[in-house]
Amino acid sequence: MTPRRRALLLVPTLGLVYIASQFFRATNAVIAPDLMRELELTSDAMGALTGAFFFAFALAQLPIGVLLDRYGPRLTNIGLLLVAVAGAFVFAASDTVPGLVAGRILLGIGSAGVLMGSIMTFARWFPPDRLATAISVMVATGAGGIILATWPLALAVEAIGWRATFAGAGVATALLVLLLVFLVRDGPPGWAPAGGRAEPLGVILRGLPRVWRIPAIKYFFAIHLCTLSAVLTVLGLWGGPYLADVHGLDAVGRGQVLFAMSIASIAGNLSYGPLDRIFDTRKRLVLCGGTVTICVLSTLALLSAPPLWLATLLFMALAFGGSITIILQTHSRGLLPDTMAGRGLTVLNMSTMLGVAIGQTMSGVIVGAFGASDGAYPEAAYRCVFAYLAAVLVLGLAAYTRVPDVRPSDQRAAARLTPSARP
User: How many CB atoms within 10 Å of residue 1?
Assistant: First the structure.
């Protein structure tokens, strides 16, 4: 296989692997009412259970960054995905909250290296000005996991139950590992790390504090805390209960609305990638997408009992506008040296997933403060969650305004001056 063909094959291949991570992080929105009813979970417990995935995902980022820089993304993710397989089976077999939490923790750890490993791989195979497009197509492919976690998941749970569905997901994830083994390589022929070899493990560990001395890192950390949290707290947790309690939808009806939201997320990912070259900016794209997300969340917070069609459109607009994480990752990568790419990107991914974990846990506290009547929470509880997410994102965007832009045209000029081994 020629280097060019292998580079083009990387995008859908890693997209298929990313499906597993996306599926496992988003499943609870559909099955939350069933879990809460079957195991008599409170909203606080449900928020903590869902957030366990993201806390584990976030805390795993620093050691994964070390592994990515030392052993490369391919070997690192082969091992991690096997942990995710174990997590799927533990979750499927659990009858208690601690067992479910343990399963979610393993799933979080096992899913934690796919995106950052893919970004590292693409940065070695593609020119810098094509990086955002490659990532956006990969993420759009991986968003098939979010789609599977909506309407198809609801149909599967209705047909065979959530336990059998998760066991099947574990088997499918094991098969995805084979794609990494046979189709993925860390870099093109002739590629080598700066300096000709990977840094020794001790040097990598001592280099972790250097990530925090990168001038823009604290502002990137702040915005990463807010962006994905704004979408996944709805799509991955409270969107389903909101549609059940406010609009009276059953599992299949909830799945259909969340399915539409997932399609909008894919459209957003596909749209943002090429736009950075068209408008020659990344920062302005993030600011525009973040502003749209804030406006949508504010509208959901202010509207009382919107009709279902309007709520569906707002959910879709939230997913589309909030798909700015990929541009943020590309922007971040432009300010990181190759030898520290794994550590730098995973520090920011830790922020992203920590933000989701905090958002989902805090939202559970907010919803629980209103109390349930016959198992249903009042609309005001969900409106407060939307307001909370909007307020946090305002703070994140304010910090992000301090970050310098990284323009694709500047990266193209730098690449012409420093030829690489890319195909």
Answer: 8
